[in-house]
Amino acid sequence: MASVTGITLFREKTTVHSFSFDAGSEGNAAAMSIRSNRIAMTLKAPDVTETVVVRGQNIPSTLRCAAMVVETFTRNPMVFRKDDAVDWAEKWENRQSSYERKFVPESWVSLHHAGNTLFSTNTSRHIDALEALAQGGDINEQLVRRVSQTLFGRDEEFVVQHDSQTAVVFTPFSSYHRAAILERRGGRTGSFAVSVHHPPKPKKNVRYDTFIHFCADLIEAVNVRMFLERIKAMVEENRISGPPITPAQVQAAMDRRRELVAYVNAFERANKVSYRPERPELF
Q1: How far is C-alpha 121 from the chain's CA centre?
Q2: CB 214, CB 203: distance < 8 Å
Q3: Backbone angle region of 17, left / alpha / beta, with phi > 0 → left and psi within -120 to 50 → alpha
Q4: Which of 36, 42, 50, 47 is nearest to 120 (CA)?
């Protein structure tokens, strides 16, 4: 039987500035700058243990990609060892919303196993090089420095910064799954936890990947609500900030919020769900 250990999503920022001693160099330059969310998962089945890394531009998409991997491995634990490769691009296409495809073009995800990039919607040689060396392990400044020397040469001096913050922590227990979620509200940081309890036997337990996907919907619903609140505030204050937003995008965001809330409500009706300290506002 396949199983997955606890999963942690980190917000990560990696920056490398190079200082060349070459007379023709322009000096201080941002040689590498990566902002992404990152999950390293350990997947287990009899005689099989795999470490898989998922990266993404935003948290909901990163979680959905992780749920896709968990579901695929649960159905076939040999998926990463078979000669016939999985069409991860097709699987992801079926999970991405039309709203994200049209109005969040900057969104991307990537999947890495044993140092190889299996799938990416935004190819990055910097991320590929980091994951090739990390081999599913943690990213730290020492590793970033080694990658920088490989990519840019050993005749350079580098200032390396790597920051990592916990954003979501999933913990599977025998009787329930729990997710602790850190959220940002108007420059402040808050948190809440959500749990789904398994039904009494002989009913089947709530699938881990289904719960991860539910949390992605929940987080995106909160994000879309906050986006619409910012739009409302700008209209009321007669001001414009940030990139232009069209009426079509506002309507699409409202439709997407209704869709997400419907998903969340359906999951809550079908399962015993509890929140601490309370359920976040979705409308």
Answers
A1: 13
A2: no
A3: beta
A4: 36
Element (H, E) at 72: helix 59-75
How many angstroms from the chain centroid is the CA of residue 196?
20
Q: Which two tokens stand for residue 40?
A: 């390293």
The torsion of the CA quartet 218, 220, 222, 226, rounded to 10 degrees, works out to: 180
User: What confidence tens digit (pLDDT) does each residue in 194-207 have?
Assistant: 999 999 988 999 99
What Å distances lie between residue 72 and 54, 79, 130, 173, 283, CA to CA? Answer: 14, 7, 25, 21, 33
What does the mean pLDDT of the chain come to?
Answer: 90
d(CA 220, CA 204): 27
| Helix, strand, coil percentages for the chain (3-state, nearest 5) | 35, 35, 30
Rg for the chain, CA atoms, rounded: 21
Q: Please give the DSSP secondary-structure letter assigned to residue 283.
A: -
pLDDT tens-digit readout, 102-129: 999 999 999 999 999 999 999 999 999 9
